[in-house]
Design brief:
Elements (H helix, E strand, L loop, with lengths): L7 E4 L5 H8 L5 H4 L7 H10 L7 E6 L5 E11 L4 E8 L8 H15 L5 E7 L3 H10 L2 E12 L2 E11 L11 E2 L7 E6 L2 E7 L10 H15 L4 E7 L3 H13 L2 E7 L2 H6 L2 H8 L3 E5 L4 H14 L4 E3 L7 H20 L6 E6 L3 H12 L6 E6 L4 H18 L11 E3 L12 H14 L8 H14 L7 E5 L9
Helix pairs in contact: 4-5, 6-7, 6-11, 7-9, 11-12, 12-13, 14-15
Length: 484
């Protein structure tokens, strides 16, 4: 089934819903799918949000290398007692009869068997839909039964066919399963001195250098493309993970990137790590004083517009909507993976900087029905007042976006006991502890970000006797910071 081009699977996102509605209202789609137009965007958004905590279904999309939507599909009614689910799929009406349906069907089945560990995938199709039947049979589905006169079409009864495919019957070697998107989530189990932890490995996030800022950059990429932007202006320090991720994302898309870098030119030109990648990315790197950030960014926006670009102002650290929604999506994946192993955290710890990561996780926990999980951000730079305020404001904005009526003023846990004097500061005791942890677990930490979070978490576990609790640590990355 090698068709000479790549197709990638990712989870359905709210930004996909406009296209979903347009396709569902297209005459090339709805007759075979049983949709009854008109389908409204408002109802579809409500449907999407109401299913965020539904662990009985997986809705996804297929895209090509440039992010073009090719097909939408899903597995519904997932029954883990006998490990089966129903498959649905519909192809972009402008891309039909190009082999997309066959390839997407194969990949979704591979996802069902390899990732979800299901034993059976089944589907229903209309008796008159000969083309679809040929596609399903070519993937390996077998006709198992007929639902006679099951539906009415143009005043006539029509049969529905029931097809099934078992895991042991599937040919796993035809084409590789490639997955992308904000909701990719790798989770490991570790034991640190008798403290049993689940670790979300955003340090291994497989795009633009990894880390939580890479997760955000992928979300921004989708947002920028969908809204017609071709340039960005953003800011950060000399070793900013955010700057690096955004610069590499722009390079990938041949978009203009202007970085307002807070620090001296001498240090920027001499350091490696993120600074080196900024230089290699082709981004415009403007060295500025911290207090001049707003003026410099406004000036860069004006310049890019005068040059004919359509730039987007990306707040430092990814503090715009895409920087939060991607973590709502990630929490959805976290819950899904946890439920497969019958696990639910009591606490979730992370290193907290600009606050959008913690805000996204907190809102995501509420949306998936895990509002009782205590999310604790260990501050890497900010003091209590300003740090907590920013998280509360962003969480409230994000909640409003999802239609969640919630005020987070009293429910954000922002710990500033491990600042060690401020940003990029640490103690010898912290450094020794992290080095020992790396030697025992293979986890690598920077003392600027994730290391502060991990060290602070372990101190809190000991202080409040949390050893027997279910604890997740969200490793936000920062590996480039140890290579500067």
């Amino acid at each position: 089934m090698n068709m000479g081009w790549q197709m990638y699977l990712r989870r359905l996102q709210e930004s996909d819903l406009k296209d979903r509605v347009m396709w569902m209202n297209d005459v090339a789609v709805y007759p075979s799918m049983g949709f009854t137009p008109p389908i409204s965007l408002e109802n579809t958004v409500n449907w999407y949000r109401s299913n965020l905590s539904n662990n009985k279904r997986v809705d996804c999309v297929f895209v090509n290398e440039i992010g073009e939507l090719l097909a939408m599909a899903g597995l519904t009614g997932i029954d883990y007692s006998c490990r089966k689910a129903e498959l649905y799929l519909f192809v972009n009406p402008n891309r039909q009869r190009q082999g997309l349906g066959k390839k997407a069907t194969y990949l979704l089945c591979k996802y069902a068997f390899n990732v979800l560990h299901l034993n059976k995938v089944f589907l229903y199709t209309n008796a008159a839909n000969i083309g679809a039947q040929r596609v399903y049979e070519s993937v390996g589905f077998k006709l198992e039964g007929t639902h006679r006169e099951e539906r009415m079409v143009d005043g006539n009864y029509e049969d529905r066919f029931y097809y099934g495919l078992l895991a042991k019957e599937f040919d796993y070697d035809q084409i590789p399963l490639l997955m992308i998107g904000c909701n990719i989530l790798i989770m490991n189990y570790i034991d640190v001195g008798g403290v049993k932890l689940r670790v979300v490995r955003d340090d291994l996030y497989p795009f633009v250098g990894g880390g939580s800022k890479a997760r955000k950059a992928v979300a921004y990429e989708v947002f920028l493309r969908e809204n017609g932007y071709n340039a960005i202006v953003t800011c950060g320090g000399i070793q900013s993970n955010h700057n690096r991720a955004m610069a590499l994302m722009c390079a990938k898309n041949s978009w203009k990137c202007h970085l307002c870098i807070q620090g001296s030119e001498e240090r920027f030109m001499n350091e490696k790590g993120n600074a080196l990648l900024d230089r290699l990315s082709g981004a415009e790197c403007e060295l500025i004083r911290l207090e001049d950030t707003a003026v410099a960014m406004d000036r860069a926006m004006k310049k890019l517009k005068e040059e004919g670009y359509n730039p987007y102002y990306v707040t430092g650290g990814g503090h715009n909507l895409p920087g939060g929604t991607c973590f709502v999506d990630a929490v959805l994946e976290l819950k899904y993976q946890c439920e497969r192993i019958d696990y639910k955290p009591d606490y979730l710890f992370l290193a907290s900087g600009t606050g959008s990561t913690q805000a996204g996780i907190v809102v995501g926990l509420d949306l998936v029905g895990w509002g009782d999980v205590k999310c604790v951000g260990i501050s890497v730079a900010r003091q209590q007042g300003r740090g907590k305020q920013v998280i509360v404001e962003f969480a409230n904005m994000l909640a409003a976006h999802y239609g969640l009526k919630r005020d987070y003023s009293e429910s954000i846990f922002f710990n500033t006991d491990y600042l060690c004097g401020g940003y990029e500061k640490f103690t010898p005791e912290m450094k020794d502890y992290l080095d020992q942890t790396t030697a025992k677990t293979g986890l690598v930490f920077s003392t600027t970000y994730s290391g502060k979070g991990f060290y602070g978490m372990m101190q809190e576990i000991e202080k409040y006797h949390l050893k027997d609790k279910n604890i997740v640590f969200w490793h936000t990355g920062g590996l480039m910071n140890i290579m500067k």
